[in-house]
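Form 12-C: Joint structure prediction
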Amino acid sequence: MPFIQVPYFSFRDFPVGIDCQVEEAVLRAVRGQQYIIGEEVSVFESEFAAYVQADTAIGVGNGYDALVVALKAAGIGAGDEVIVPANTFIATVNAVVQVGAIPVLAEPDRHTCNLTAAEAARRITPRTKAIIPVHLYGQACEMTGFLRLAEQHDLTIVEDFAQAQGARYKGRPVGSFGRISATSFYPTKNLGALGDGGAVVTSDPALAAYTKMYHNYGQQQKYYNQLIGINSRLDTLQAAALRIKLQHLDALNNERQRLAQVYLRALQGIGDLVLPITAPDCTHVYHIFNIRTKQRNALQLYLSEQGIQTAIHYPVPVHLQEAYTWLGHKRGSFPVAEELAETSLSLPLYPGMTETEQKAVLAAIHTFFERHG
Ligand SMILES: *Cc1c(COP(=O)(O)O)cnc(C)c1O
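Section 2 - Result
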C-alpha cells in the first residue's frame, strides 16, 4: 500500500456542497450586520431546541460557559456536591468548581466508558445537588437510572452532551433528559461551528428565563438588570454557520456511524483490542472512535511512523490531574478511569474520510498486531 498521511481529524466538504452553503450563510450574516444576538441566533436557538426535542435552547459562547450557566440556572452553588465522571474532558469538572460547588468523582462503566446511575448512587451524600452524566465519545448514557435517582434524592440532572449531539436514548435525543443540559459547538464536535460556541437546553421555563438573562449580563431588557450575569453569547456568524450544519447533522452522524461500522467489522478479534461497546437502548454518534489495548503507546508510535495520527481521550483522569490534587485522591482511587486512561486510543474518524485513508489505518493496525500480537 502506498504511504499516505492520515490526519486524526480533517474538515472535509461532507456532504458535498456543505462548505459552500456555510460560506454563503456566513457572508449573508456578515452583510446583515446584526453581529450580536442577531436574528440568526434566535432562529438557530429554535431550530436546535426542536432538534433536541426540548422547549428552549440558549446560545452561549462555548461549551464550558454552557455548563457554568446551566449549573447556575439550576441553583447549584457554594458547598453543593455535584457528581461527575472521573473520565471526562476537564471542562465538566472545572464548571462545577467555577460555580463554587464541589466535584465528586465517580467511576465510569468499563464497557461503555460512561457514568452509570449505579456508580453515581454510591457517591450520593446529603449535600449532593446534581449529577452530570457526560455522553462520552458520542454514546448516550443510560438515562432511566439517573432520572430515578433524581426523583428519589431530589437531585438535578445536568447533561453534558458536548460530544453527542444527535445521539439517542430509547429513541429520544440526548440533551432532552436533564432538567437542563449543556453542549459545545467547538469546531471538531459533531455539530461544530467555525469557532467557539455552545448552548444551554431546557424545557423548564424558569431555568430558561434565568439562562436568557444570566448569559447576557443579567439583563431582562437592555440596561435593566435583574441579576448579576456574565457575557457569554453565541456569535451571530457562528449561528449562521450552525444553522446549515444542523440541517446536515443526521447525515454527518450517519457517516460517522458508517465509518465506525467499518472499523468495528475489520478490527474484531485482533490482538487484545477492546472495541467500543454500545449499550442497549443507546445510540452512538462516534464523536470519538475509542479502542483499547495494553500496547497503546507502542501502537500509537507505530501508527504515527506510518503517517497515521491518533489521539488519546484522555491521558490523565481527573483525579490524577495536578489541578485536582486538592480533591485528595491518589493512584488507585478510580481503577477503571485509570485503566481507560492507560489503554485508550482514538482512531481517525471524520465525515468525508476516504476509503483509502481508512484502509491505511486498518492495514497498519493489522501489521502492528501481527508483529506484536
Ligand atoms: C468539548 C467539551 C466541552 C467544552 O466545550 P468548549 O466549547 O471547548 O468549552 C465540555 N464537555 C465535554 C465532554 C466536551 O467534550
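Section 3 - Comments
The radius of gyration is 21 Å. The CA atoms of residues 63 and 184 lie 4 Å apart.
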